[in-house]
Amino acid sequence: MSATDKAKNKAEEIAGKAKEKLGQATGDRDTENEGKADQVKSDFKDAGEKVKDAFKH
Q1: Are 44 and 31 in contact (CB under 8 A)?
Q2: In which domain, by residue range, is 42 found?
């Protein structure tokens, strides 16, 4: 996985966690759920990159 992709995925994960916490603090379920979804999307991207790396080696 390239360092750029890894950094982008980590940034998306952090943003998702922040969005989730903001939703919890304000009682906004939609924002909280969007944050959780962003984290899941980041996890899938990481997994996809790891699979690609495994086939390169």
Answers
A1: no
A2: 3-56
Q: Give per-residue pLDDT as tens, 6-35.
A: 889 899 999 999 999 999 999 999 999 999
The counts of H helices and E strands in the chain are: 2, 0
Structure tokens at 22: 């903001």
The residue to which tokens 């952090």 are assigned = 14
Tally of domains in the chain: 1
Buried b (16+ CB within 10 A) or exposed e, 39-48: beebeebbee
Q: Are 53 and 1 in contact (CB under 8 A)?
A: yes
User: Does position 1 have pLDDT exceeding 80, yes or no?
Assistant: no
